[in-house]
UniProtKB/TrEMBL annotation:
Name of the protein described by the UniProt record: Kinase-like domain-containing protein
Gene3D superfamilies: Transferase(Phosphotransferase) domain 1
Domain Protein kinase, chain residue ranges per copy: 1-142
Keywords from the UniProt entry: ATP-binding, Kinase, Nucleotide-binding, Serine/threonine-protein kinase, Transferase
SMART domains in UniProt: S_TKc
Keyword Transcription regulation: no
InterPro entries membership: Kinase-like_dom_sf, Prot_kinase_dom
PROSITE patterns given in the database record: PROTEIN_KINASE_DOM
Pfam families: Pkinase
Length: 142
């Protein structure tokens, strides 16, 4: 069991409006904190497998926590070919094609978080999160 401090400010999705209003230094610092946490996971030879804005918790101005480690797996662990976990807009194309989760797939998910920080909206917020979106991501047709 892992016990972390209570993140009294909720998750990143809930706080997106506040984040967007922050200055660039604050945004970059928060992104740095997030990627530092992801690097710690990868340095333990693990892949998160469900990295998205709902799993990044804000504790205070200086602390963020990466949560929901229930799908976290050792890097070399093979899942069944049809096992796809995560939130479609944050899934790397190779995952949607049935490939294994890798640190690179977590980094793709982080890039979608970066998208949110710069655009102010979640990725693909104007589309249904369905098979058509999955196919568009796989083909690179956004």
């Amino acid at each position: 069991m892992v016990v972390i401090d209570y993140a009294n400010r909720g998750n990143l999705r809930k706080n997106l409006t506040k984040v967007v209003k922050s200055d660039w230094n604050q945004k970059l610092f928060m992104l740095y904190r997030i990627i530092s946490g992801l690097i710690e996971i990868h340095e333990q030879n693990l892949v998160h497998c469900d990295f998205h804005d709902g799993n990044i918790l804000n504790h205070d101005e200086d602390q963020v926590f990466i949560s929901d480690l229930g799908l976290c797996r050792p890097i070399k662990t093979f899942m069944k070919k049809d096992d796809i976990y995560g939130v479609i807009p944050f899934l790397a194309p190779e995952i949607l094609r049935g490939k294994q989760y890798t640190p690179a797939s977590d980094i793709y998910s982080f890039s979608m978080i970066m998208w949110e920080f710069t655009s102010g909206v979640p990725p693909f917020n104007d589309r249904a999160h369905d098979l058509q979106l999955s196919l568009s991501i796989c083909k690179g047709n956004y």
